[in-house]
From TrEMBL:
SUPFAM superfamilies with a match to the protein in the record: Subtilisin-like
InterPro entries assigned to the protein according to its UniProt record, in alphabetical order: C5a/SBT2-like_Fn3 (IPR010435), Peptidase_S8/S53_dom (IPR000209), Peptidase_S8/S53_dom_sf (IPR036852), Peptidase_S8_Asp-AS (IPR023827), Peptidase_S8_Ser-AS (IPR023828), Peptidase_S8_subtilisin-like (IPR050131), Peptidase_S8_subtilisin-rel (IPR015500), Peptidases_S8_5 (IPR034187)
The name this protein goes by in its record: Predicted protein
Protein family according to the UniProt entry: Belongs to the peptidase S8 family.
Gene Ontology molecular function: serine-type endopeptidase activity
Highest taxon above the source species: Eukaryota
Active site residues per record: 168, 220, 546
UniProt-listed GO biological process terms: proteolysis
One Pfam family this sequence matches: Peptidase_S8
Length: 948
């Protein structure tokens, strides 16, 4: 069960773990999740290379293909969309070499895209294929109002004639709300299973023609399909209606019942969807990957778009990592990436009554009728002390002991526990005691999200109002008299969601590393009730950008059904310019476009818009004073209109703390990105215009961010240009940028740190048995001695402390102390004379003609061939605290060797923004002071492990 978000991968960058020191490179390596399949690539071939042959045979004509040791995984033979292969080699192959081979247009590593998580609630089916009738007073279709879809349904606009392809985990089309069958004439009319039930991303797929998925863990696709096009039949289910209930669905199954899917299968599925005539390809999946330059989906999405197929994809569920947490394929430039907004209500609450027939509503996906009449016992009962939240939250072991001693019959008893922020969900002992169900009360507004299905005991949640009701009734109960509830309500009611209409905490942030505005738009995606495999209960309440993407796909189907001739970019622009920006949670500030894109989708406004605004977004990239932008407003109505322009600033974020102090102003104590009020300003060449029918005008807008003193904190500013017509129609254009010049700032964080131990770049001297950075010593300027000994307590070793931002290549190595290399930055006074003690250590040729003793660490954005000492780095910002515990280096060929005593300097080189790896001028570098190493020649080979 989960209430408060956990830390994302970028925790290291945010400063939360800034005292962490890594002791060796292998440790760093193991921290990285290998999503890349070794020696396996998607290869796009040149269209004119050996035309007439099949992709496989063409690949065989390339130089890497001339090697015998590869096998084809997929062939892509559509010259219109994508022509190439995915191949797996038996031996290491260098991606850069592959990419530059004759006949090869481009190449990417095959990587595993993780399975989208199922965050939410579902149950088990007890009723066979016919589903119970849960219809009650709950406004189950509230998301349709939030996205202004209902008004289109009322006019009969339901997506007829538009084909939506779902690339997902398959669909249980036997569900009565999804048509009950598969094939022509059914709601799920087309599809293919690329993988089979047993596929997990690492084994061989078993394709077949039927995309049916009935496993609960494969229920994701059934849920997203429902969001697009479900329609509960009379007297079954909740009365749910999808966004485009008359659209045709095509189901391409790429996930089995567990595990991920490789990106080469996703590309095959995208191409198949196009072949089968899809209008919209909806992808509720993604791999956290915020660099556009290595996105393998870019070309395919672009080609599909130019053929009139719209690609809609989830931006990702990595929002707790803050800015730059978006994923591929969503960030493909022609795709529409979708963020998530929380539902206004919990749509599935149920009523229980006490003996005086007073109601209590609890949240669960299905009614807990099987409980019947149960007596409510509070955790802490039987203790001779007042019952406090600390006791009922389960954080006090005495309470569990008392409960155990009470010997209660859990067939007729339910346990009331409370959720408290300091304690979380410490209810584990309940399962051991045999508790069947928990009534969970709240003392503050909480995002109620249960993410472990089938958890024992079942947790039934009470919102704040019902929590107060229950607790006051329990408090008033006469001593010795039990309070009982009967779980007799079987018709759904709803309760308000205090997080409703705000961006969801899990929704990934833009921009891309290349500073393109992402996500493009948002839709309801938090706490969404939709269809689920019949065997798994038929319905689930799930949360994720997986849920908001199909909402947008469905809305797009409605728009497309009314405007079949608009191009994909025109359709997207309509959706974006008519969306409504929302505020941050519990705030008067409009949320950044980096969080919500253009805002909450408004399907009705998109369909009925009679003004065209172009462009639909501004990515202002990196500048303290971005160039003026032009907005064209075209009145396509039959009447004269007056438009006024306004600027609405959005919130400001920082990815890292500001480095000037240890005050954190990037992430809150709950590890959510802080929303700062540092608004940009905007000036218009005209603040209002009047246009006759068919007329258009171009207005210039100059956006100016506030100067930011902390570029190394990766700040992002944003806002909206709002255009209001005198008939009250509203349009807006989101913008986003970073308020500094990334090229000028450079990738090495420097000159801004004053508080030890945050200095970067630098070296600290640490005792080998205490790598706590705060305890490390500041070395003497220019020259410091370090020593290794088998008695680790006596060893004082160097710790390299270097922070970088947005670099795709870095190299940390030890070089001769008298190196003539001129760095961008010196870590010593070059005028001070030192008598060097040269080590008896061979000098290697080195990188870009700089002589070296060997590498400490090298990282690049893309995976390197097996055996390479260069690691793939997945970090966006980079906090390096690396202790040289074992005085060993690595050659560029990957050989590791122990070094000899003597003088060394550390050289750090990192590629500047948009730099070329082979150009020495494109690096920012730092050369450190002399490190005089005292390394005993008898240091054991397995030091430090061998030391006492
Ligand atoms: C790495 O993968 C494991 C297993 O899939 C997962 O639990 C963990 O959160 C991942 N770590 C990161 C940093 O993404
Ligand atoms: C391309 O591949 C598909 C699927 O493998 C196949 O059905 C089709 O016939 C091929 N087309 C050509 C022109 O080879
Ligand atoms: C409840 O527990 C927290 C954390 O252990 C503690 O800080 C707090 O003082 C406790 N409150 C009471 C009222 O005992
Ligand atoms: C609880 O119910 C189960 C199943 O009906 C039964 O086997 C068990 O004996 C009951 N326990 C008690 C303490 O009544
Ligand atoms: C950023 O600085 C570089 C180097 O001075 C310059 O070439 C580039 O034009 C600048 N970019 C912008 C957007 O001002």
């Amino acid at each position: 069960m989960k209430f408060s978000p956990t830390l994302g991968l970028l925790a290291l960058v945010s400063g939360a773990s800034s005292l962490t020191v890594t002791t060796n490179v292998d440790q760093l390596r193991s921290k990285q999740n290998t999503t890349v399949v070794p020696n396996t690539f998607i290869v796009e071939l040149q269209p004119d290379f050996h035309p007439g042959l099949q992709p496989k045979d063409r690949f065989a004509k390339t130089k890497p293909g001339a090697k015998p040791n590869w096998r084809v995984r997929h062939q892509y033979n559509d010259t219109d969309i994508f022509y190439g292969v995915s191949v797996s080699f038996d031996s290491p192959v260098d991606l850069a070499t592959l990419r530059t081979s004759a006949g090869v247009k481009n190449a990417w590593s095959v990587a595993v895209v993780p399975r989208p998580e199922l965050r939410g609630l579902w149950g088990v089916n007890k009723g066979g294929t016919k589903l119970p009738d849960y219809r009650g007073s709950s406004d189950v279709n509230r998301p349709l109002d939030m996205g202004n879809v209902q008004k289109l349904h009322d006019k009969g606009i339901k997506g007829k004639g538009v084909q939506v392809a779902l690339i997902d985990s398959g669909i249980d089309y036997t569900h009565p709300a999804l048509g009950g069958g598969f094939g022509r004439g059914h709601k799920v009319a087309l599809g293919y299973d690329f993988v089979g039930d047993a596929y997990d991303g690492s084994n061989d797929p078993q394709p077949d023609g039927d995309p049916l998925a009935t496993c609960a863990d494969g229920g994701h696709g059934t849920h997203t399909a429902g969001i697009v096009a479900m329609q509960d039949p009379k007297k079954q289910g909740f009365g749910l209606v999808g966004v485009a209930p008359e659209a045709t669905l095509a189901a391409y199954r790429v996930f089995g019942c567990e595990g991920g899917a490789t990106n080469d299968i996703l590309i095959a599925a995208m191409i198949q969807a196009w072949r089968d005539g899809a209008d919209i390809v909806s992808m509720s999946l993604g791999l956290w990957q915020a660099w556009e330059e290595i996105n393998p989906f870019e070309d395919v999405v672009d080609k599909l778009t130019s053929h009139g197929v719209a690609v809609v994809a989830s931006i990702g569920n990595f929002g707790t990592a803050g800015p730059y947490s978006s994923s591929t394929p969503a960030i493909s430039l022609s795709a529409l990436s979708v963020g998530s907004i929380e539902s206004d209500i919990y749509p599935t609450a149920w009523t229980a009554h006490d003996d005086q027939h007073r109601a209590i509503n609890y949240i669960n996906v299905f009614p807990a009728s099987e409980l019947g009449r149960v007596e409510v016992v509070q955790l802490g009962y039987g203790l001779a002390v007042p019952i406090t939240p600390n006791i009922t939250s389960g954080c006090d072991q005495d309470a569990w002991d008392a409960l155990s001693n009470a010997q209660l019959n859990w067939n007729t008893t339910i346990l009331q526990v409370s959720w408290e922020s300091w304690c979380g969900t410490a209810w584990g002992p309940a399962a051991d005691l045999g508790v069947k169900a928990l009534l969970v009360t709240m003392s503050e507004a909480q995002d109620i999200l249960v993410d472990e299905p089938g958890s024992e005991p079942a947790a039934l949640y009470l919102d704040i109002d019902n929590s107060k009701l229950l607790l006051s009734r329990l408090a008033k109960q006469p001593a010795g008299k039990k309070y009982a509830l009967t779980f007799d309500g079987t018709k759904a009611v709803d309760v308000a969601n205090p997080y409703g209409s705000a961006p969801d905490y899990f929704s990934s942030f833009g921009p891309t590393i290349e500073m393109t505005l992402e996500p493009k738009i948002s839709a309801p995606g938090g706490t969404i009730l939709s269809t689920f495999p019949v065997d798994a209960g038929g319905y689930a309440v799930l949360s994720g950008t997986s849920m908001s993407a199909p909402f947008v796909s469905g809305s797009l189907a409605l728009l497309k059904s009314q405007n079949p001739r608009l191009t994909v970019p025109q359709l997207f622009a309509r959706l974006m310019t008519t969306a409504r920006p929302v505020n941050e949670l519990n705030s008067k500030l409009t949320a950044s476009a980096a969080r919500q894109g253009a805002g909450m989708i408004d399907a009705y406004a998109a369909v009925t818009a009679d003004t065209v605004i172009s462009p639909a977004e501004f990515s202002l990239r990196d500048s303290a004073s971005p160039a003026p932008q032009k907005i064209t407003i075209s009145n396509q109505s039959r009447s004269r209109k007056r438009y006024s322009l306004q600027h609405v600033p959005g919130t400001f974020y920082r990815l890292s703390n500001n480095y000037l102090s240890d005050i954190k102003d990037n992430f809150s104590s709950a590890n959510l990105p802080l929303t700062l009020d540092i608004p940009a300003s905007a000036q218009f060449s005209q603040s209002s215009v009047t246009l006759g029918p068919g007329q258009s005008v171009t207005v210039e807008v100059q956006i100016k961010p506030q100067p930011d003193m902390y570029p190394f904190a990766n700040p992002v500013y944003s806002g909206f240009i709002k255009i209001t017509a005198d008939d009250d129609d509203e349009y807006s254009v989101p913008y986003l940028g970073v308020p500094y010049n990334r090229t000028e700032v450079g990738p090495i964080v420097h000159n801004v740190t004053t508080v030890k131990p945050y200095d970067s770049p630098g070296i600290l001297k640490a005792q080998a048995t205490n790598l706590f950075l705060a305890d490390a010593l500041t070395p003497t300027p220019n020259l410091e001695t370090y020593n290794w000994t088998t008695d680790l307590d006596e060893a004082y070793i160097p710790v390299f402390r270097i922070d970088t931002i947005m670099t795709r290549f870095l190299r940390l190595e030890l070089v001769p102390a008298n190196v003539s290399f001129v760095p961008s930055m010196y870590g010593f006074d070059p005028d001070v004379h030192i008598d060097y003690k040269f080590p008896d250590q061979p000098i290697l040729p080195g990188f870009l003609d700089v002589p070296t003793y060997g590498l400490v660490l090298a990282e690049s954005l893309e995976p390197q061939p097996e055996g390479s000492p260069i690691m793939q780095s997945t970090d966006i910002g980079h906090f390096l605290g690396l202790a040289l515990l074992d005085p060993s280096l690595t050659s560029d060929k990957g050989d590791k060797f122990r070094i000899a005593a003597g003088d060394y300097r550390v050289l750090f080189r990192t590629l500047r923004w948009r730099g070329n790896e082979t150009n020495p001028d494109d690096y920012e570098s730092w050369l450190g002071p002399v490190m005089r190493f005292d390394i005993p020649s008898d240091l054991p080979p397995d030091f430090p492990n061998s030391s006492e």
